[in-house]
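note to self: dont lose this again. the chain is below, predicted strucutre after it. 325 aa total, dont forget to put it in the shared folder this time
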Amino acid sequence: MTDVLQESKRSGHVAGEPEAGVGTQALDITVLSGGPGAEREVSLLSGQAVAEALTRLGHRVAICDINPEDLSALERTADFVFIALHGEFGEDGKVQRELDARGLKYSGSGATASRMAMDKVEAKRVFEDAGIPTPPYVVVDAAGLAAFNASVGIPAVVKPIGSGSSVDTTIARTLDALRDAVSNLVEDYGQALVERYIDGPELTVGVLGEEALPVCEIRTKREFYDYQAKYIDDDTQYLFELDLPSELLKRVQELSIAAHRALGCRVFSRVDWMVDAQTHLPYILEINTIPGFTSHSLVPKSAARVGLSFDDLCQRILELSLTEA
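---
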């Protein structure tokens, strides 16, 4: 991972210095945050943190709230758009399509990769085709609700197909709880994704450029790493000194890069994993194409482990995005 740090240093920015830009050029940047989805509040925090970092780096920054009914933020003149929108309209490829249509350069993955990563079922099919292990699953809709059974086993994880931050995700430990959870999601979303529950450590790996950041294990006092544990709790633990086989950690990093490439992601992402405690086999859960940029967020924590400050990380994402545009 030293290459990422070296690239940041070669770009001309050293942590703590006010000068930045691609080379020495300060850019006019629009930071998009907020949005219409359930992750709006977190997105506002991410956008504020990114805007402050880019300003410290010497860029001219405007932070803008945006939603599908108000695209005025995209009309301002800017050299670059930094997307800090989580979930709906940010990670589903829609805002990327708008930016592509306007010829605007922006951070992170393109429209197609974003859409596929946001659709958990389509992403799982891509992972399966690429030989990347993912928990067994079924998709249930209204037509199949009456005939639904616990074919993936109990406990099972029930989640929306196109939502992030564990919104409306539950672990069902009885057949009645499973049927209720599936029925509720089908009513609210039209479909439900039901996955086999993998009992073991939860890991996450940030991908930056073509390299994997250090593996982080997440430990929470809650039943699982839900919205509260992600963004509100102060006792969630993020561990980098792990009591896991080095071969497993290396394999998870390699598979994270493979998954990032399989979906056609670019610049950066965060890949989430569960590891079976008995077999030590890793199972990919999903890829986040716009992971959080808050004080609780995982990619900034992982970047810091290799010497990239929050400001360095934002600058690196900016430079990689412009290079790969």
